[in-house]
Specification:
The protein is of the alpha/beta class. It has helices at 3-6, 22-29, 37-51, 73-84, 102-105, 115-119, 126-136, 143-162, 200-212, 262-269, 284-291, 323-326, 345-350, 355-363, 372-379, 384-387, 396-401, 410-420, 429-436, 441-454, 531-552, and strands spanning 60-69, 89-92, 169-171, 183-185, 216-218, 222-229, 232-239, 243-253, 274-275, 301-304, 333-335, 366-371, 423-426, 475-480, 483-488, 498-500, 506-512.
Length: 553
């Protein structure tokens, strides 16, 4: 037996299974410290005594200065900073490579001050970005942490290319931030999205560099239990083909949020949410830190699907070029399961990634309702932006992403959705309402068509360009559910990304980055495209730097 396991009977090891529900974690966290460090250690030892059976006898024990849990965007950049400082690092990853996380697959991060922007003459400052981010969040996130992340964002993109040889470029400002570009991509050819580096093509160069500095990667292995010793986080127990204890001076938790947990989604949001990113992330990092006494954040939400609606019973779940899916973000009439409107659909259409995610959670399972005249317009080859009024002010995103891009096979796609059962077609509104079980749909349509005729939405004040009447049968309703690329919400940290206890005191040796961190991202999701990926990359770098600084103090 290792020295680490021998000590279990005399030292306080707080443990918690990574797949336990957040509610259970909250109960255990209630035993966690609330005052002085002596009380903290005592509380943790008491909690451990009731859960000691969760800690297993390790087959192997490893040691390092810093162990990083997760090889996503945050974990990889944390490991880079640790290795750069000359400290030993072990990265534990549940997947089989560095190419399975959202951080390796997402389009690209928000950035400020990169060489790309400077060379293009884009005058976008940290002050402007920081002020907008904090005002958008109503100052509900950690200002100092956000400022530090924004300051690192441009340099991170520079390093991807200059240090690791991963091609980067500028993405257009689709969401109206006011500059030619506020986001990077990873395309070697700016005009060809197929050249985008994804998966291992993006992250393997970082892995090679880290390993060249002596770092180690452990794949197909999941972090399960944090090891707490006298109130200090001193490592983690992991499980894969064997049980491995990694003894470390600092632990950086970056397991990617809880996108893959249907139960946690239901608990947080009250409705089913289709996962569009990596489902390997099921919230175990949040559970472990919360069990160690860490606070959870006040911000909970999703970064929604900006390309289309989504349905778990449909083939492919979502599709930007399939009319049956795409109509969900075109500003058409949206109703809840009672047949009543629940939002200004124009907000959904213009900011689908940010506000769309939040609005979809309000709707739960919701429906887009259109008539045959609207379908015929799309089927005739008219793009949605032109069909809905060509309003560059109120539908900037439509002008940037939909203008001139007509859908193909519109009627055929819709007919297939109806046949599959997740879309409905009826000769009358009353029949459609009956098919949906939405008793108020007819009354809603009568009122809505009146707004369309008058040119003004008197209920939610949707821009007139989106006011397309629903009057010419047959009628269609498409069933959608919220969908997300990443979750928002997790562990509350201080400005140095250290997990904090109920009293706001840092838990020594424990850092949180990426989607597990509830400090950097607000809900609703920020309206800067690529913001979550920026938070992951920059947050990982910051956590790595802060951990190293603490070790060197």
């Amino acid at each position: 037996m290792s020295e680490l396991n021998k000590g279990l009977s005399r030292r306080g090891f707080l443990t918690f299974g990574g797949v336990a529900a957040l509610g259970g974690a909250a109960v255990l966290a209630g035993c966690a410290p609330k005052a002085a460090s002596a009380d903290k250690a005592s509380a943790q030892e008491s909690a451990a005594a009731g859960d000691a059976s969760a800690m297993k006898t390790a087959d192997e024990t490893k040691e390092c200065d810093v162990v990083v849990l997760g090889a996503g965007g945050a974990g990889m950049w944390a490991a880079v900073e640790v290795a750069r400082a000359g400290k030993s690092v072990i990265v534990v990853e549940k997947g089989n490579s560095v190419g399975v996380s959202n951080g390796s697959l997402a389009g690209g991060p928000f950035m400020v001050g990169s060489k790309l922007q400077q060379q293009a003459g884009i005058d976008f400052t940290v002050e402007e970005a920081f002020t907008h981010i904090m005002e958008y969040a109503h100052w509900s996130t950690n200002a100092a942490a956000v400022k530090a992340a924004v300051e690192l964002s441009g340099d991170t993109i520079d390093r991807f290319t200059d240090e690791f040889g991963v091609a980067t470029g500028l993405r257009p400002d689709n969401y109206g931030a006011g500059h030619a570009s506020v986001r990077a991509n990873f395309q070697s050819d700016p005009k060809d999205s197929k050249t985008q580096a994804k998966g291992e093509a993006r992250m393997a160069p970082l892995q090679k560099w880290i390993e060249g500095k002596g770092g180690e990667f452990v794949f197909d292995t999941a972090a399960k239990r944090l090891i707490m010793e006298d109130g200090v986080c001193t490592g983690v127990q992991c499980e894969g083909s064997k049980v491995v204890d990694v003894k470390a001076k600092a632990v950086i938790v970056a397991t990617g949020g809880f996108l893959g947990s249907v139960e946690k989604m239901q608990e947080r949001f009250g409705t089913f949410v289709n996962p569009l990113g990596s489902v390997l992330s099921v919230g175990e990092g949040i559970d472990m830190v919360q069990a160690a006494g860490g606070q959870i954040s006040t911000q909970w939400g999703i970064a929604g699907n900006e390309f289309s609606g989504s349905n778990k019973d449909a083939e492919g779940i979502w599709g930007r070029s399939n009319a049956a899916f795409a109509i969900g973000i075109y500003g058409t009439l949206l109703v809840n399961n009672q047949g009543r409107r629940f939002s200004n659909e124009g907000k959904f259409a213009n900011l689908p990634l940010a506000l769309g995610g939040a609005i979809s959670l309000v709707g739960g399972q919701y429906y887009a309702v259109v008539d045959q005249a609207y379908v015929d317009g799309l089927n005739a080859g008219v793009d949605a932006w032109t069909l809905c009024g060509s309003d560059e002010v109120n539908w900037h995103t439509g002008a940037m992403t939909l203008k001139g891009k007509a859908l193909a096979n519109v009627q055929a796609d819709i007919d297939k959705a109806v046949e599959a059962g997740w879309a409905h077609k009826a000769a009358t509104i009353e029949e459609l309402a009956e098919a949906l079980g939405a008793p108020d749909l007819a009354a809603t349509l009568e009122q809505y068509n009146g707004y369309c005729a008058g040119g003004k939405d008197e209920q939610f004040y949707k821009p007139a360009c989106f006011l397309q009447s629903v009057a010419t049968g047959p009628f269609y309703a498409f069933t959608y559910e919220p969908s997300a690329w990443v979750t928002i919400g997790g562990i509350r940290t201080n400005d140095r990304l250290q997990a904090i206890d109920a009293a706001g005191v840092a838990i020594e040796g424990l850092y949180v980055a990426g989607a597990d961190n509830g400090t950097l991202m607000s809900a609703p999701y920020c309206d800067y495209e690529g913001y979550s990926l920026m938070c992951a990359y920059s947050g990982g770098r910051l956590a790595g730097r802060y951990a190293v600084e603490e070790l060197s103090a």
